[in-house]
Amino acid sequence: MSAIRILGISGSLRRGSHNTALLRAAALSLPSGAELEVYDGLRDLPAYDADLDVEPADEAVAHLREAIADADGVIVATPEFNGSIPGALKNALDWASRPFPDNAFKGKPVAVVGASTGLFGAVWAQAEVRKVLGIIGADGLDGEIPVGQAHMAFDDDGHLVEPDLRDALAELVGVLAARAGAAADPQAV
Ligand SMILES: Cc1cc2nc3c(=O)[nH]c(=O)nc-3n(C[C@H](O)[C@H](O)[C@H](O)COP(=O)(O)O)c2cc1C
């Protein structure tokens, strides 16, 4: 049986991103038989423009849509910028939402997690991402992983330090892998 493929999308572009670190922590928590690849094309996407939303699609847009379509499940790690979703991530979700309703996210299991250097762990941004995913037609999982004070949240091995958060992340990615596996192979359920 082939591995369950999970695509990780970090809403942060910067090299030292705590949200990309959170995706790596999620990868460490995945059950056997599942693998996570971090998407690295967010900065290459043009700002959404309906005049550019034509076939054949812009290369970066096509790459994003293919990466989502090829994955069995997706995990989005979002920072919080001014109480909401970073523009680069919202832009990617907007591109991925087209053509609507038969887009790459349709029915796709998606978990949302988030990290911020503040105390609250990007909970508003996570709620906003879940709202957008619902409108897009993804199979958004309930629950959030609020990693606050993210600059102190990871140990040297890349795991979350806080045991409750670490357990919650393992549980969430376990549910995501199960849903992704079922979506990839409905006969197996
Ligand atoms: C423009 C901007 C706005 C921000 N707004 C918030 C905010 O509303 N709430 C919060 O908890 N952190 C906020 N932060 C801090 C980010 O959570 C912090 O920079 C975080 O580490 C970014 O994620 P990254 O490490 O993955 O790049 C803001 C940062 C920037 C640059």
Describe this structure in words.
By secondary structure, the protein is of the alpha/beta class. The chain contains five helices and six strands, in the order E-H-E-H-E-H-E-H-E-E-H. It is 37% helix and 15% strand. Strands 1, 2, 3, 4, 5 and 6 form a six-stranded parallel sheet that branches. Strand 1, helix 1 and strand 2 form a beta-alpha-beta unit. Helix 1 crosses helix 5. The chain is globular. The chain starts with a strand and ends in a 5-residue tail after the last helix. The mean pLDDT is 96. The structure holds flavin mononucleotide (FMN). The site of flavin mononucleotide has 17 residues, from helix 1.
Total count of helical runs of at least 4 residues:
5
| Helical content (DSSP H or I, runs of 4+) | 25-40%
Overall pLDDT: 96
Radius of gyration from CA coordinates: 16 Å
What is the subunit arrangement here? single chain
Give the biggest sheet. 6 strands, parallel
Low-confidence stretches: none
Shape: globular
State the total count of DSSP E strands: 6
Task: Output the structural class.
Answer: alpha/beta
Heteromolecules bound: flavin mononucleotide
Percentage of residues in strands: 15-25%
Task: Give the ordered list of helices and strands.
Answer: EHEHEHEHEEH
User: Ends: how far apart?
Assistant: 14 Å
